[in-house]
Amino acid sequence: MSISAKAPKGTRASSITPQQEDFPRWYQDVVSKTELAENGPVRGTMVIRPYGYALWERIQNELDKRIKAAGAQNAYFPLLIPESYLHRESEHVEGFSPELAVVTHGGGKELEEPAVVRPTSETIINAYFAKWIQSYRDLPLLINQWANVVRWELRPRLFLRTTEFLWQEGHTAHASAKEARDYAIKILQTVYEDLMVDVMAVPVITGRKTAKERFPGAEESWTCEGMMRDGKALQMGTSHELGQRFSKMFGTTFQTPDGIETHVWQTSWGVSTRLLGALIMAHGDDYGLRLPPELAPIQAVIVLISPDSSIETAGIQLLQELKGRGCRVEMDSDMHTSYGRRITGWEIKGVPLRIEIGQRELDAGNVTIALRDTGEKQSIPVASASAVAIDALSSMQHRMLEQARSFRDEHTYPATALEDAAAKAIGGKGFATIPWSLVGNKGEEELAKEGLTVRCLVAENGSLPVGIDDDDTLAVIAKAY
Amino acid sequence: MSISAKAPKGTRASSITPQQEDFPRWYQDVVSKTELAENGPVRGTMVIRPYGYALWERIQNELDKRIKAAGAQNAYFPLLIPESYLHRESEHVEGFSPELAVVTHGGGKELEEPAVVRPTSETIINAYFAKWIQSYRDLPLLINQWANVVRWELRPRLFLRTTEFLWQEGHTAHASAKEARDYAIKILQTVYEDLMVDVMAVPVITGRKTAKERFPGAEESWTCEGMMRDGKALQMGTSHELGQRFSKMFGTTFQTPDGIETHVWQTSWGVSTRLLGALIMAHGDDYGLRLPPELAPIQAVIVLISPDSSIETAGIQLLQELKGRGCRVEMDSDMHTSYGRRITGWEIKGVPLRIEIGQRELDAGNVTIALRDTGEKQSIPVASASAVAIDALSSMQHRMLEQARSFRDEHTYPATALEDAAAKAIGGKGFATIPWSLVGNKGEEELAKEGLTVRCLVAENGSLPVGIDDDDTLAVIAKAY
Fold first, then answer.
1. Sign of CA dihedral B232, B237, B243, B246
2. What ipTM, to 2 d.p.?
3. B399 and B373: one domain?
């Protein structure tokens, strides 16, 4: 990591619109002032700038470890898919057709068959799974790919809805429906939920999508839903049971131990650069980003207040100590920029910890440690600074998760009638929970009129609901991104 | 890493065409039998299978470290580029037009302006550099991206020439021509040459491209050229000085300290999944891949010959020891596959070291260590096996580089006349070197008729030639991929 220590040109925290005044504008301001991303020239596309990409690299790194631990291997399938492939699964093509980018010319000629730029890869991957899988011994086949996808977006918004986005998409084949379900849920919990809660400090609700909200072509979709600081829900990751739909269309079969030719059961699952949107909106405040230490590309910055050599020596010493303790740390010795601008710059970038070294304090053997999450500042002995810093990062991670959890709980309203749920979700700016039996498909249509959706179904005891009509199944209702 | 230990179904080393018999077919056989990659459905595209992708991940990992050490930051620019952008630089569009994939429809409608799928990103990146750079203080701006690109390919060949490939592309802007040149060469040497020589064990020749072979839009192109086992050259990576051509077309300017508005000088540089082709062809033999230990995703495999518990215990012990020493090691305890098939499977995959544990040998306190590069097998005490293995990997890395270097030197022929150079390169299946003053642009045309090209210009003393007309500049002539 070597993100520039310079504050973005002309940035002042006060140039960020307060969240309370206009949340969408606050979001835009943060994305732009922290130089995370900007719009691309083709409608809805996005340029991810170095600091934004550094966040994505951290997410990739953490995800990739967990995906491999879940047994999947990385591979890469082509960007361009023959148009006819998409037409093989009817719900799938219906779902994606309005969003496709189509290549009609290649190498200076019109193509015999147009190719679509992948909006997702179930179809092309099945064409290969069908060749690679012959016997039950070839199962499970667990594949993941890191890729870009294109879905034409009419109302684009950086990170949240972009025409092109980066993601990982997992695709697996199994010998039974139960194995496929178990794997879809394993990914949901041990990969996605674990990343979101433990690294991103976003206390997501995991649950099942209703039929209306399912992935086109899936038999069940499982989801992680986070609450943003404006009370709206953000779907942060989904894991789908595809059943035998794609395997039937592509002839993806295996021989059972008894020699019976059987279609495989499949899953697919993905999270994308949308997670950066979640990170911004779940934790950010009026001073900019607030990054949970586990995720932050820069966990701590040592700010040298003046160019004195004793300060520099102390800074270098602390830098080495913190690096030795595994901390992602940088030193800011930029004397061309004013102290105030430098501090504001690190704040807006959401760097969890700032250690400031000034002459008078150093003469007394102390430095100042400032916590981005609470704004707290404290003078501590320089000798114990690195130990204190490591402890502070660890408690900040915990505190940010608890803060987000309290916020979510305070903005979650149990309801016992549909109108009541809708009113509470809208008026209280948050989630309403209500027995799914009081909603149903008809209720979902009613909610849609108010701009609300059922984000997911959960069991009252917090476990994932298996039977959709179980008595204890609750619907979580909210406005959503 | 968890590549399946199973030998590919039905694989026998003898099913690989010998190199001497038919090198291109040998290549195809290796790519397919080792399950590295296969053709995609859209002409020229490629599916990279898990073992192939694991090789790419190793290369990415090693490259990314070096790129960051050279000061560049990762970012991401859109896949889709407005067609008009490419037309701004005339040589650039002329070079790439025949290879473009064009998106004419998006979101169900014909686009007002077609978008090309990026063949490379100089144009779109300049559109942003022009916004981001204002002052000399913003320079140098050093950006890299990991991305896929599409160049329509009429004679596709897996890894070597594919319609879509994966690569990294670096793009930088500098305050002077000299700084830009220095950086282009820094990348060539400290990133590319270092990776190719030290990790891939391919002793590349670094030099300058002739005007004819330059990147479209570049003022100078620098290259790393490797010799394959058939004596042909493979261009493995290039680094370009773009001068002010793109900056003039996109208005990418900065204010000098004296307040003078000046166009930036730029570089771009890239290596791609083509490196996998180099790896296969620089080291492979009639038994399959041979991977240099530094690069190998699996450096050593412990093969348990029978399912006895003492063997398993010894295997697990050794696995832990090797992991503790930082070795990428796996254990093969697959008793469903015959011993012969398992061994052949690990050989064809090019795993550098095999440690076989059998009952009789183990009873005597020994295991067998087998080296993939030389085929040598040796019985060694189990107690010292992990130490011996680590040493063996290190000397194998060195030996493979030296072997490739000897092969290259034996197939490099000094010549003093153009006809002689051509005859030697063709007859000797290798490189011919000849003073550039005896070739010239006209000589290049002559060579082209024989299927030969000037791969690069080098100084006689091995340093990079600065002036193209220097007396001591040698041309390296070869057939190339």
1. positive
2. 0.95
3. yes
